[in-house]
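Standup, Tuesday
Yesterday: got the pipeline producing C-alpha cells again.
Today: sanity-check two examples.
Blockers: none.

Example 1:
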Amino acid sequence: MKKTAIITGASRGIGKAIAVALAAEGYHLALFCHNNIEMLNQLASDLKKEYKVEVYTYQGDISDSSFVIDSCKDALAKLGQVDVLVNNAGIAHIGLLTDMSVEQWNTMVNTNLSPLFYTAKVVVPSMVNKKSGNIINISSMWGTVGASCEVAYSATKGGVNSFTKALAKELAPNNIAVNAITCGVVDTDMNGMLSADEKAELAEEIPIGRFCQPEEIAETILGIIKAPSYMTGQIIGVDGGYI
C-alpha cells in the first residue's frame, strides 16, 4: 500500500536525514523548507531517482499560517493521504532573556511551536478518517530541563512536549500515535557557530562522548513509526545520556 509523509525543515540536517530514511522505506514525500529551495529540489530529484517515490517541495516561512495550511492542503491532495507527519522545522536563539527583543520572542514562538497547530489542523482530519497515523515532533532536551541563555528556545520546546502529550490523548481513540523526540546535541548547521574547541569541550560533557548524527534521529523516527500504536504521548530522549 502507498505510504506517505510530510516533513518540515527538510532541506538539510535532521530533516534531510529523515527524508532519505523514509524514501528508502518507500514513502512518498512532501518536503518543506524556508530558504534552501535549490538544495531541497536537488534532494527531491535524488530521492525520486534512487527510490522511485513521489516527492513534492514547498518553500516558505513556517511561521506563516497561510503558507503552512495551504501547502499542507496541497500536499494532502497530491499524496492522497498522510500517514506520517514530522514537525522538524525550528530555530535557536542564544542570549540573555533581558537582551531579547519582543520581535525575537514572537519569531521563536511562531516558528517552533505554532506550526505544530497549523500542520495538525490540516492533516489530523484525514488521519481520523482512516483511523491511523503517526505525528512525530522534533523537540530538544532543553524543553525538558531548560537551558540558561536559551530561555525562549527551552520554552517553545517545552510547549512542543506538552502539545505532544495532549494531542496524543486527544487522538488515541482514533489509533493515531503522537510522540516527540527530545534531541541532544546534534551535528547540524544549528551548532555551526561553535568553534572546534567549543565542540570538543561540549562533546566531553556528553556521556557517550560525541555529538548525535542526524541519521540517528532518522533511525529513531523509523523505530517510532514501526512501534505499536499503543506507544503514544511519549517524549523520547536521544541525547547520548546527557540528561
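Example 2:
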Amino acid sequence: MKLNVEGIEEGKPVPEKFAFGVYHPEDHMSFGPNRNPEMSWEGAPEGTKSFVVMMFDPDVPSIADDANQEGKTISKDIPRVDFFHWLLVDIPASVSRIPEGEDSDGVTPKGKEGGPGPVGVRGVNNFTQFLAGNPDMAGTYSGYDGPCPPWNDEIVHHYHYEVHALDVESLELSGEFDGEAVRNAMAGHVLASARVTGTYTLNPDLR
C-alpha cells in the first residue's frame, strides 16, 4: 500500500494549518487551524473489507507534571508513550481518500462528538486526558486533533499518519473507544499498512 498525506513530507515538519497548537512568541502557544490533512491511499490488497486511519505521537513524556511549566524543561531522557491524535475505524473499502478539513476544521473546546463521523467511526483521542484538568477545555475529544507538544520539551516530536487495510468490515467497537482498543481489535486482521511521519515542536530552541 502507498499512503499520501497532502502537505506532509516524510521526516519534515507538519504545517501549522494541521496543528492544534502553534508557536506564539509571548504565550508560547495559541490555538492553530487544527485541520485534518488530506489522506489518500492506493494498492490495498485483495480481500480488504475496511480501513482504519490513525495518527499518533510516540514521543509524549510518560510523566507530564512539568509540561508547559515556566522555568522547567521536560528532559529528553524521560520515557515516552504513545499519544493518539486521530482514530477512524470502519472506513468502507470503497473509500480511499479523506479530504482536508473533513474530520476537523478548527479547535472545538470540550471536543468533537464520537461515533459515526464524515468518514468512518471516530474513536477518542488523548486530548481527553491531557485537557481533563482545564475547566474551559475538559471533555471527550473524538476524531482529529493535531500536534500540540509541550513547548518546554527538549525533543522534537514525531507524528505517524497511518492507514491499515483490514479483512473485516467492522471492528465492532462502540462507545468511547481509544487507541489501545483499536490496536487490540485490529490484531490478526491487518492485510497491509502504510505510514507517513512528520515532525513538530513548539520549543523555540528547536524550531
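Quick observation on example 2: Residues 51 and 163 are 7 Å apart (CA to CA). Residues 2-200 form a domain with the Phosphatidylethanolamine-binding Protein fold (CATH 3.90.280.10).
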